[in-house]
Amino acid sequence: MVAAADVEHNGLTRVLTSIAVVVRTVVLACTVPFFSYLMPFNGSLLNFTIVVLFPCLSYLKIYMPRFGVGRFEVAAIIGILVIGVCIAFVGTYTSLHQIIGTV
């Protein structure tokens, strides 16, 4: 009986959290000028960190001391990081250029 109540509470919490995120995004979109240019800037800057940087560095942090990571793996990870940094830089620059161009 307690487990069913916890599941219902968790479901309600998820729904309320989702609604709050959507409402907050809509309010920001209506109040912040250049919101359509601000979101790609935010995405290109922060998503790179979450999607590319953290997994690569975490992999090295976890597996380097335990098993030793081969030179090929380290080179591949460094290559991924360099390409990711270049893409993030281009995305950030493009977004900033659009924001400045519309001001």
Strand content: under 5%
Order of helices and strands: HHH
Please identify the oligomeric state: single chain
**Ends distance:** 59 Å
> What is the number of helical segments per DSSP (H or I, 4+ residues)?
3
Shape: flat
Transmembrane segments: 12-35, 41-60, 72-93
Pfam family, one: Aa_trans
GO biological process, one term: amino acid transport
GO cellular component, one term: membrane
Commentary on this structure:
The chain is an all-alpha fold and 103 residues long. It has 2 domains: 31 residues; 70 residues. It is built from 3 helices and no strands. Helix 2 runs antiparallel to helix 3. The longest helix has 33 residues. It is flat and about 50 Å long.
